[in-house]
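Bit of a strange request maybe. I'm writing a small parser for structure token strings and I need a real example to test against, not something I typed by hand. Could someone generate the tokens for this chain?
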Amino acid sequence: MTITIAGNKKEYEEGVTVETLIEKENVENPLYVTVTINDDFVDREKFGETVLKDGDAVEFLYFMGGGAR
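Reply from user aminoacidic:
Good idea to test on real output. This should exercise your parser:
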């Protein structure tokens, strides 16, 4: 199946979960990543049970903090 990851189309086997995708894509700081599928946020607790489908668009997001001096 074809999924789009950060704008790049990639081939993956059927039944791949978000958790597996994070591992296969060598996501930096997986404990701090937020994931969207087709612009919908995925609950961290559901990474292991959320199965991707052909045509899905996945983004790995990191929220950065900052502040005034």
